[in-house]
Amino acid sequence: MDYLGDIQAFLPGVITALAGLIVIVIESLKKDSSATFWVTVLSLVAALFFSIQSLGTGLDTAFSGMLVHGGAVAFGNVIIVVATLFCVFISEDYLKGINHYYGETYALILFATTGMMCLAGSNDLITLFIGLETMSICLYVMAGLIKDEKSGAEAALKYFLLGAFSTGFLLYGMALIYGATGTTNISAIGAAASTDLLFLAGAALLLVGFLFKVSAVPFHMWTPDVYQGTPTTLTAYFATASKAATFVALIMVLSRALPVMEGLNWQMVFSVIAILTMVFGNIIALVQDNLKRMLAYSSIAHAGYALVGLAAGTPEGYSAVLFYMFAYTIMNIGAFGVIAYYERNKGMDFSEVQNLAGLGFKKPVMGIALSIFLFSLAGIPPLVGFAGKYYVFAAAINAEMVTLAVIGVLASAASVYYYLRVMVYLYFREEHKPVELFNPTLLYKGTIIILAILTLYYGIEPILPASGLMELLNSYGNLGAVTNVLIP
Amino acid sequence: MLEIDWFLAVSAVMFTIGIIGVLIRRNAIVIFMCVELMLNAVNLSLVSFASYHGNIDGQILVFFALAVAAAEAVVGLAIIIAIYRNNLSVDVSKINLLRW
Question: What is the predicted ipTM?
């Protein structure tokens, strides 16, 4: 047994877990010290460094086959850590501003991040379950952070009850798959997969649990309520990091444990769910006046676009989903960040879209940044959202799913309405009454500007710094080779 | 020695009772108890499958499921207390601030 090698393989997760413990100790010794923030940031930077370092390596297993690392998983870790880092940057200022600054929040974020990395890199149903639950339980607590307000407690209760309910299905699915195959190892499950009823029922229940976590229709009911009731910067964390981790895990399970067999077509199932998710998410978002609810329905729609890539079921489709999650992460954190800024100004409820009237010119940096993020979410070139959508739909067309891609493009066209509506209010309406907007801190402003630059940069040059998209495809080629060995 | 089918049947029945309870009950604590019932029904399935296959993977998963259920209970009851302090009720049909 090579313990040191194993720990090195899961180093980003180990770092964040240890940092979480340190944050708890610091917080218990000295309340609200700024040390918690810096420990969190330092550990995340270290985790990002090690994740980027392992980008080039091929997919390999660690901890006696319980975890996989390298390749696509390393890229998933990069997305998770980047999302966490940016959310921590904007949360520091925001949570202080709304008088709900607790050092423990950072510990929860770090533990949730550890869970996400465990989830993304799981190669066994046991690690999958532990990762998913470590993440979810921390998120339940964060949803209820503003516990003395009715909406905060309500969001936490809804998230918790529905989340625990879906965990029941997920676990039952795992039990049935284990019963059918006699193993909990994901690669071994793929080799022993059959079309008997026990295995199919197990796989279906497992997928229900996953689809709940990525808020695909018809398992999306919790999303708008939870996103609205949670502090805005933490909503950004829920919407990006946890979704990215779940999609990476879903890719790993789909590509290795649930092979395409005769009389069974997972692609078909995912196409139907992707269509439902895209159409439903976009249509309901059209009528939302609350910005956070609108972004919640838009995040449902975006999960639908990513499911298109899964439905394609090719290595190209899977890499497209990974890039899509990266694109979605940077533009969505940016959009939530700017909304969190407007929301903190007193005088009006700035999470209602009508109240944003005429604010675009007051703080030009924030207005322009929000426009960039919303254009990118709408999928307008040359921003990163367009590149992400292009790869996903191209993968669907190459997999001969033209109908799916056409419906996706149409749904995406409808989404332009509600994104542009925000900008119409920002720039083309007179303000209701004169309001003074406060100046954001340098860190906050810097984070938003960096996110806007990244949105622009990866839209023009959709190639990742340490590893190009082609190399990413190749790392999927390695994954495909593993699959081919297991499934003749 | 009983056949494995009997254990699986009990587990499936318990799981179904849990689902029905979650769907029809209105008290947050009772809903939470029904979720726990679902998790424990799964544990029964896992243990019987482990004994059927003759390996211990399933039993290890049961240990983790128990630990997770305990952690969930801690967080869940705390959230229910927060709800009670705000609404003086844990009736989920009265918790309807956020909709559409």
Answer: 0.95
Instruction: Report chain B residues whose CB lies below 8 A from the CB of A129.
Output: 61, 64-65, 68
Would an 8 Å CB–CB cutoff place B38 in contact with chain A? yes
pLDDT tens track for A282-332: 999 999 989 999 999 999 999 999 999 999 888 788 888 988 999 999 999
- Check if the beta carbon of residue A197 is closer than 8 Å to that of residue A297: no
In a domain, B100, yes or no: no
| B30: CATH | 1.10.287.3510
Contacts of A156 in chain B (CB under 8 A): 79, 82
pTM confidence score:
0.93
Residue A34 tokens read as 């700024």
The answer, yes or no, to whether residue A483 has pLDDT greater than 50, is no
B99 part of a folded domain = no
Among chain A residues, the shortest Cα distance to B72 is held by: A137
In which domain, by residue range, is B19 found? Answer: 4-94
A154 contacts on B by Cβ (under 8 Å): 83, 95, 97-98
CB A199 within 8 A of CB A181: yes
> Looking at the domain assignment, is residue B83 inside a domain?
yes
Tally of domains within chain B: 1
pLDDT of residue B1: 65
CA distance B89 to A143: 20
Domain boundaries in chain A? Answer: 3-486
Q: Does the pLDDT value for residue A29 go beyond 90?
A: yes
d(CA A253, CA A256): 5
Yes or no: say if B46 and B61 are a contact pair by the CB < 8 Å rule: yes
